[in-house]
Amino acid sequence: MSTEDGKRSGRPKGAVTEENIKKIHKMIFGDRKFKLNEIADTLKISLECVYHIFHEYLGMRKLCAKWVLREVTFDQKQ
């Protein structure tokens, strides 16, 4: 009996790619008031993938209808 996970059938995650991360980064820094569903529709990926990219790869969160970095310096707050 093995304790390691074996390969599972199913669709591999293909939406979280460097290309999509760069596109989302460019879209957000162009206009920080984008909605998640607008980005998902534009890139033709799921809403969950967009949310995952924001939090895990870009380190951003929603604050007062704008996407901002989680950790901002004093100069960035000004």
Describe this structure in words.
InterPro entries: Transposase-MT_Hybrid (IPR052709). With 78 residues, the chain is mostly helical. It has one domain (18-77): Arc Repressor Mutant, subunit A, CATH 1.10.10. It is built from 4 helices and 2 strands. The chain has a two-stranded antiparallel sheet with strand order 1-2. Helix 2 (36-43) packs across helix 3. It is extended. The protein starts with 17 loop residues before the first helix and ends with a helix. The model has no long low-confidence stretch (mean pLDDT 78).
Jot down its keywords.
single chain, 78 residues, mainly alpha, Arc Repressor Mutant, subunit A, two-stranded antiparallel ribbon, 46% helix
- Overall average pLDDT: 78
Q: Report the radius of gyration as a whole number of Å.
A: 16 Å
Shape: extended
- How many beta-strand runs? 2
Strand-residue proportion: 5-15%
Second-tier CATH architecture = Orthogonal Bundle
How many independent structural domains?
1
Backbone structural class? mainly alpha
The first-to-last residue Cα distance is 58 Å
**Percent helix range:** 40-55%
**Count of runs of 4 or more consecutive helical residues:** 4
User: What is the succession of H and E elements?
Assistant: HHHEEH
